[in-house]
Amino acid sequence: MHVAASVPSVPMQRRMHLAPLVAARSALRQRIGWCALFTKAFAMVAARRPELRRAYMNFPRPRLFEHADNFAAIAVEREYDGDKSAFFAHIRAPERWELSALEARLRFFKEAELSRVRSFRRALRYSGWPLVCRRLMWWYGLNVSGRARAKYLGSFGVSSTAGEGASQLSLWTPLTTSLFYSPFSADGSIDVRLVFDHRVFDGCVAARALAEVEKTLLGEILTEVNHLCRANAA
């Protein structure tokens, strides 16, 4: 929250009409979660659009760094020390994963012991450091090394509380982009929101990105889900 407070983030929203994908997903024997679907769709768009893989960094001079690969940072709620806590699971190049494998990986992050997930272990270890050391680590990761930023923090984020029947209107994030979405309406429509760092690109880029995410969900993602349906039937 301390780091995100210095990022000039702007939210962008698009109403997506995904009824065909909703119907195809409901026919699957083993459901693919919406988190996996949205993560892969956005990663596919970011792989095609380099501006979505850029990050603002300010050392040794202000500049934009372009990540070669996507690194998704996905918010996962886990129980720790008797309380519900937010952890971030990292997946490299989710656009290259099959949906079934991506869903299995997300289930692993949600169900495995915390000690078995590297990013969770790292977060717990660093959280015990003195405040000044944590602030220095965050500053270095966000502003000095582009590769470290992508590997340890992510190039984009995905977070959603739609499963609880509600959604944030905005959120604070130190990353260039973070995607989140509302619960579905009865007609298969959904509000999808993208929070972006205005230093990296403007609102038109974000609007076009959301439009392309919808097109990808109803294109390549729907095709893959239909293929899974046919495989189940066979």
Description:
This protein has 234 residues and is an alpha/beta fold. It has one domain: Chloramphenicol acetyltransferase-like domain (Chloramphenicol Acetyltransferase, 2-Layer Sandwich), CATH 3.30.559.10. The protein is 41% helix and 23% strand. It has helices spanning 19-26, 34-48, 99-111, 118-127, 131-143, 146-152, 203-233, and strands spanning 9-17, 54-57, 63-66, 71-80, 83-92, 156-158, 177-181, 189-197. Strands 1-8-7-6-4-5 form a six-stranded mixed beta sheet, sandwiched between helices. Helix 2 packs across helix 3. The longest helix is centred in the C-terminal third of the chain and has 31 residues, at 203-233. The radius of gyration is 18 Å and the shape is globular.
Q: CA-to-CA gap between the ends? A: 49 Å
The total count of helices amounts to: 7
Mean pLDDT: 95
Low-pLDDT ranges: none
Integer count of domains: 1
Structural class by secondary-structure content: alpha/beta
The largest sheet, given as strand count, sense and whether it forms a barrel, is:
6 strands, mixed
CATH class: Alpha Beta
CATH superfamily: Chloramphenicol acetyltransferase-like domain
Approximate helicity band: 40-55%
Shape: globular
Question: How much strand content do the residues show?
Answer: 15-25%
DSSP strand tally: 8
Oligomer: single chain
Corresponding CATH architecture = 2-Layer Sandwich
Instruction: Could you tell me the CATH topology label.
Output: Chloramphenicol Acetyltransferase
Q: What spatial order of strands do you see in the largest sheet?
A: 1-8-7-6-4-5
Topology as H/E string? EHHEEEEHHHHEEEH
CA gyration radius, whole angstroms? 18 Å
